[in-house]
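hi!! sorry for the late reply, been swamped w classes. u asked for the two structures so here they r. pasted raw, havent cleaned anything up. first the sequence of the first protein and right below it the tokens
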Amino acid sequence: MAWLHTWLGLLFGWVLYFVFVTGTAGYLDTEIDRWMRPELPVARHASSQAPAILQAQRYLQAHAAHARRWTLTLPIDRNEPHLRVSWQAARGAPPDASGTAYLDPASGRPIATRDTGGGQTLYQMHWRLHYLPPLASEWIVGIATLVMLVALVTGIVVHKKIFADFFTFRRGKGQRSWLDAHNLASVVTLPFQLMITYSGLVFLMFSFMPLVVAPWYGPGEAQHEAFLNEVFPPLAPSRSAGQPAPLVSLERVLHDAQERWGAKQVATLTFENPNDANARIHVVGNFAAGPLRATDILVYDGVSGELLTERAAWQSGPKAFRDLMLGLHEGIFAAATLRALYVLSGLLGAVMIATGLVLWSVKRRQRAERHRGAPHIGLRLVERLNVAVVIGLPVAIGAYFWANRLLPVDIAHRAQWEVHTLFGAWLLMFLFAGVRPPRCAWKEQALLAAVVFGLLPVLNAMTSSRGLAHSLADHDMVMAGFDIAMLAIGATFAGIARATAYAPAAVDGYGGT
């Protein structure tokens, strides 16, 4: 079991570290979105949804009357703090005919914001890997997740004193210290790691389902679509009739929905074929109301207001289990304290992976030094990859935030350039780690990370009106909290740089000079 745990952890550790870091950022995606759009005001939720809905409808009627789909996302909680509308152009229309806008819920005026990838882009990286084709990304992440589950189980088997190790940490003992840190991070978060890994496999199940679907439905895209339509039947699908017709009063639709749902909130309104005789209005509840990632949905005729169909959150036991796994994985239902535990557990998961990677190189370097032989090329490669991934990835994410403030607001494809900056900076960290001795690279990249994150609040104050002092005075805790978190991350990396500089070379585990 030990060799399986060791080698699976090494071969997939770098991918899993990337998944854990970007996935953990996803638990704060809304807060990151807000910091990367400093033009947005402090979120304030009104007691009644009707005024915001009517303002949004007026805006869409004036700016996207001929679109084939409208979506109104209402400001109801931390996950959706601002009124947002989007529209999808009719088939055959140019791509720029689609769009998204944030609106002032009181006046209906659009709020001009910069184009940015925000926190959602970081979150989606943890299973999409950004530049790779979606199917390839999901297979890579899915296999890595399966390996993670095997590594967790074998780790439990290997560490017979796993709970005793929870109370043990021997500082300055080289390999023993790294093993203690690895065990501590593993045991503290073991329930979370098992949950997040298993639920991640459920999250990606449809990437692997073609292998199961084909014997029953037959091979091919059409057969796979038939399977998905059976599992997730479409709600009152309709085609455009090509005949103009006015939309029903939304107040009537909302009144009926509230009569049926009681205290449950409306989170989203989707209009299919607005201003058409075959218009449909989907009234969607709040997916973040609880750990079950499902909600009630009502579908109305967009012209007459007649209720056509409804779907309850609970449909079957197996689907409810899948929805529960997705809800626990995403954690969108979590309030502030539970969300903080999600973030802490995710960070400790990244620490668990990072210490495991370093432990592999520590053991083999000490073995090479005992035999007075030169470290083999594989060890030297792993030592440098460890630096570039463990420290280089946070540096790259910091560069992503810097790009948000430094790129011209009106530059074309701005959100894409933010991401290009992230991966370009990460590539530089790989090159840097390749030409510097590992011990020096650990210290220098950690210092760079400390500077990148520590100066972000200064950059924010210089490039926006939402500096830390202003945010605290305005009780804007999202912006202030982000800046304070960046200072804390910068201080953490400064501590890592100091530790690498003063630790004895024989026991530090950071590689040769």
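now the second protein. again sequence first, tokens right under
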Amino acid sequence: MRSRRIAPALAVSAVAALVPALTPATASAAENPLPQHLEQRPAWHRCSSATPASFQCATIKVPLDYSRPGVKKIDLAISRLKTSSPAERRGVLLLNPGGPGSQGLDMPQSLSAELPKSVKSKYDLIGFDPRGVGRSAPLSCGLTAEEQNWQRPYKAATFAKDVKWARTVAEKCHAKQGDKLRHITTRNTARDMDVIRAVLGEKKISYLGYSYGTYLGAVYTQMFPRRSDRIVLDSAVDPARIWRGMMQVWAEGSEPAFTRWSGWTAQRNATYKLGNTPDRVRKTFWGLVARADRKPIEFNGTLVSGDDIRAGRAMFFSVRDAAEEIVALKKAAEGKAPSSAPDTGTPERPAPPAFGRGAPSDSTSAAFWAVVCADTRAWPRDPEQYRRDAVRDKAKYPLYGDFASHIKPCAFWKKNGSEPATTIDNKVKVLTLQNEWDSQTPLSSGLGMHRAMKGSRMVTVAGGVGHGIYGSKSCADKTATAYLTTGKLPAKDVTCQAPAPARERSSAGKLPIPAPPGIPGMPGRF
């Protein structure tokens, strides 16, 4: 198919001509980058000596505040891997790994091995570090390692300490970053994507976003519907529940996963010896939690408390991994074996490339809080509400309810984001992909995105385990590839069956998206 690329010399005038047709008369001028942002051309260069020459990087400038585009610009790092077949080129496929706070500059290289040749022949793969992340004006709040750990269970005795932690994180971020924080939002990142589109000389962009990247993609389609081409949203956020509600979804989704694990493990008592009924398996687990609360268990070289075990709730979505880990933990508690977890066989996720490691050590955490606190104005301000909610949800969702609803730095964020949250309700044609057993964006979350995106079709992998689908050799890959290469959505929603091994253990380990935590619990991401 003929490429949709615009000749560079015509890019500015072509985009300027499109703006009136794409924007309602009542929309703010900030909805569309002004032509002066589009006059730049990327100076492409090899990303690093450790990467192939074909993998190129560049830095462009975008406004910090799109309502005052001439006041201050920030750097935005972008990358590309050009199509393997220029004659078949359709355009560009922007990529986002999730987060918020995750680097995406390396995605064209890291995801290329997982994408089919038919897709790579259609598109230049485009990566970018979102604003505030990696090489794109990275944030830092000067947070210590302890301040970055926000897996905090509710306890009456430590509530005042946790409130102080949340206030301290907010105050340190505002002291170091000031007004900049108001502009590190999903809406502004979507605008940055549109600048990328324009400076690349494209009329439209196609997009593949995982996890938080699904929300970013949905916001882009809401703001720039006629510039949205083929959009794939993989493992989706529910846009109606950003962002406190999405943390609470982790607790809600973990209970049925724990129930499933208990039944699966009981059926294999001869192997795991954790109990021959679901109730006995659960009793063994909660006994370990109580034991670790009384005296932490040395495990993997770390002292693990009962709260740490609960914080590892994501493991229960992968039933075989969880059974093996709990067996190892039980043996460690009993002093019967070396305190190390078994090799689950899950592939290691690729490390960030050398060229992407220059950001401050707390940049991921700082960018995470900047986005989730500024995207929406719905965070409660009264610490006592967090207390009440944590007590309520620990009773309702014992595994993780108090963690999810406990106080967060957003309670003390001094300034709201520069704009209200985005309502997602458009009819752009989108394909969403969802595993039945996803620890970070559970099935209910994916269904929420599908409801909001009125023009979407959803592929559900029944029995599928893991966070991230496309590129993991899932039964959903065929439908996603067909859509990206032909533009044809399925006539109706699709459900396909995960093969038996994939129902027990995640197959998404090689995808370049943030990994959920295990034991001991560390901060999760979308």
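hope this helps!! also noticed smth abt the second:
Confidence is low (pLDDT under 50) at residues 1-30, 341-350, 515-523.
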